[in-house]
Amino acid sequence: MSCSLYTATVQSFLQILDSVGALLNKAESFCDDKGLSHESIIQARLAPDMLPFTYQVKSTAEHSIGAIQAVRTGLATPSLATPPDSFSGLRDKVANAQEALRAIDASEIEGFLDRDVRFEFKASRRDFTAQGFLMSYALPNFYFHATTAYDILRHNGVTIGKMDFIGSPLEKS
């Protein structure tokens, strides 16, 4: 049995982005139920030197549809855009990524095989094949930021568990 690049990337991105969207709703409800400012979660961090929850959520969108767009152009550069500062802005960011991913035809992703992709940031340059970039750079970054967003919520008392992160796995139909 083989696994397609589309299944490994786009379907995985969509599964976890669905979970991230649900986590945003739980985080907002948590704030409202506890009388906390939304800012208290949106700007929450696990450590003083790490980027906040809002950046982690923003990065899930950018390491999913942003990675696909990078392969399309052959150039990947990190977004330096300021993350949204509200739950609704974060939901929009995630929803836009989901919409763009759902519009992709699987054959386009399969056509990426062996395409060149260059990653550039400051003085750093790395050359990849499309599948190498997606599987060894974009996916690990995507999961890192999704996990960190989950961990920030959990650390701040939001009642969530493993299935809130995993969401709806691709079951045999």
Provide a quick synopsis of the model.
It contains eight helices and three strands, in the order ααααβααββαα. The chain is mainly alpha-helical.
Structural notes for this entry:
Helices cover about 60% and strands about 10% of the residues. The protein is mainly alpha-helical. The chain has a 3-stranded mixed sheet with strand order 1-2-3. Helix 1 (about 5-35) runs antiparallel to helix 5 (about 85-100) and helix 1 (about 5-35) runs parallel beside helix 7. It is globular. It starts with a helix and ends in a 7-residue tail after the last helix.
What structural keywords apply?
3 strands; 173 residues; globular; 3-stranded mixed beta sheet; mainly alpha
Please give the structural blueprint:
Elements lengths: L4 H30 L3 H5 L10 H10 L2 H9 L1 E2 L10 H16 L3 H5 L5 E6 L2 E6 H26 L6 H5 L7
Parallel strand pairs: 1-2
Antiparallel strand pairs: 2-3
Helix pairs in contact: 1-5, 1-7, 3-5, 3-7
Main beta-sheet annotation: 3 strands, mixed
Spatial arrangement of strands, main beta sheet: 1-2-3
What does the radius of gyration come to? Answer: 16 Å
How far is the N terminus from the C terminus?
A: 16 Å
Percent of residues in beta strands: 5-15%
Assembly level = single chain
Poorly predicted regions: none
Q: Which structural class best describes the helix and strand composition? A: mainly alpha
Q: Helix count, per DSSP?
A: 8
Bulk shape: globular
Output the helix-strand order: HHHHEHHEEHH
Compute the average pLDDT: 95
* Strands, total number: 3
| Helix percent band | 55-70%
